[in-house]
Amino acid sequence: MQKELKPGSWTSPLSARLLAESGNRNMWSQVVGDDLWWDETRPSESGRTLIVSRKDGDLLKSPWSASSHVHEYGGISWLAISRQGKTLLAFINKDDQRIYLTEPKGDPVPLTPAPPEGEVHRYIEMISVGEEIWCIRERHIAGEVTRDLVAITDSEVRSLDSSSHFYSQPRVSHDGKYLLWICWEHPAMPWDGTEIKVAEISAGQLFNVGVLAGGLEESCLSPEWSSRNEIYYISDKSGWWNLWSVDLDAKKTHLITDESEWGGPLWQLGMRTLTVLPDDSVISIHGAVDNRKIVLVDPKTRECKDLSSELTDFKPSISAGNGKAYAFGGSGKIIQQLIEIDLATFALSSIVATTHPPIDSKYFPTPHEITAKRSDGRDVFAILHPAHHPDFSPSEKVPLIVVVHGGPTANHSATLDMEYAYFTSRGFSVVDVNYGGSTGYGRDYRNLLRGQWGVVDYEDVIAVVDTLIESGSVDPQKVLIRGGSAGGFTVLNALVHSKKFAAGASYYGVADVTALAADTHDFESRYLDSMIGRFPEDIDLYIERSPLTHAENLTSPLIIFQGLDDAVVPPSQSEAFRDICVAIGIKHRYISYEGEGHGFRQATSIISSIEAELTFYGEVLGFIPAL
């Protein structure tokens, strides 16, 4: 028999400490001989990223951390290589951004030289080419940022190509004659338009660089070579990121027509959404946001076969070797698994690693996609995580926490999230809004944010809130809203432009897009051109869209969290909004964290912020939370 109890005050076994300890993040994998390596970021070890072997466990000694700062968001920051019969680990060290070499569990030694005084050099996306490592280099010199493709050997760095501002996914053909890569220029972002370029390799240099695919309004991703020097890649030319091929004469073929996404936004470099197998068949990922699938494609017959799996979402980091393929996935009941696929049968052969939940699964909600209608009739998509506890039922309508994802070119899937479970097991329903501009729903939906950031996003949030209130499932007086980065921007705009929210939580949110345009990192420095307008020509729009401009309209209590080392959204943004809260006398809290950047990685910060947020909600809604 369930006991009726006021939502918010339910006792949950999921403490903030358990939440932080369950927050290990795994991503990239590589087949290394008869072994498999992957990386793991651990909040319990001050957020460091280390490399793990299937056979031998941790390979990177503490306190070393493999984390590139290229684009500030990084990506794949390590590579297993073979030198003189030994398997070595090459990695980008977080502290100084130099590339180091080490034997597994050994003492790292630097491979790249220290940069000249006053300069910052960063590296990412390493590949092994003969006795050299080729990769992307990012240099910060006197306030200017440049990037190039480089070759590294014996502490020397040789530039291969510097004709573009942004690079990703360098790949050498199987015969060693060609190098291909993706590139783009300001003001485009990689989901707007990229090009696939190819060059001939001769004596360690590149010649005859040409464009094979892509353009200003075509986003190409994940190019990979076949054994016949044909290239398979993902393109959204059809309106959806689908599978294409192109040959060295730039003859393109749309292999699979599918109204679902086979790619995603290139926020982190190294994203691999497809892998070409030795027989030139292709493994990729496709499907709806709430039901993604691993798919095997025969490019000759164009036959597609989905992997039978209980997982419903997969990270873009597929690897393969020794007759097996590997992918990280999750579902509504599984935080994350690293699965092994037998390529002979295309069936799941084993589970390599599992992120075990810290509490029994009976406390978890069942997330599912819902659709809301705007007043103009357009659909808005969201993922609902209903309030759930096996021992309690609500004595009144449950509070609703609206989550706004960051990016804003990103999305959330219908998978188990411990942070959401922290709230749902205490009596809150959580809804994650994939507002217009989100990925996963085709290019047209993604482009809805063009010129409309600060309008479409918060209007879509309101549409979802109205739909859930009309359904009678939530208390209209107890709607809360939270989000980080671009999600924080939408949170602040929703709070200053509506009266629907009892309180809000902004994590390192954008408060002033005028200041952001003038003071942010290079990767996103022209992002606002497409989402708002050109700066400073359209400064009036920037002023109008900034939550800070309308901050005096704020009537809802607000809690603000900020990392003091954030280079994406500087602390001055949160501090400015805090100062307005002080000036107008609105209930608020401002909490900052030393040593944290854009997103909290340390267990102490995760614990502190989530407990402070829940306590703040309790003060506003009138319940005593069980921390």
UniProtKB/TrEMBL annotation:
Domain Peptidase S9 prolyl oligopeptidase catalytic residues, every copy: 417-622
Checking PANTHER family in the record gives: PEPTIDASE S9 PROLYL OLIGOPEPTIDASE (PTHR43056), PEPTIDASE S9 PROLYL OLIGOPEPTIDASE CATALYTIC DOMAIN-CONTAINING PROTEIN (PTHR43056:SF5)
Q: Name one Pfam family in it.
A: Peptidase_S9
In alphabetical order, the GO MF annotations are: serine-type peptidase activity
InterPro entries for this protein:
6-blade_b-propeller_TolB-like, AB_hydrolase_fold, Peptidase_S9_cat, Xaa-Pro_dipeptidyl-ppase/CocE
**Could you identify this protein by its name?**
Unannotated protein
A GO BP entry:
proteolysis
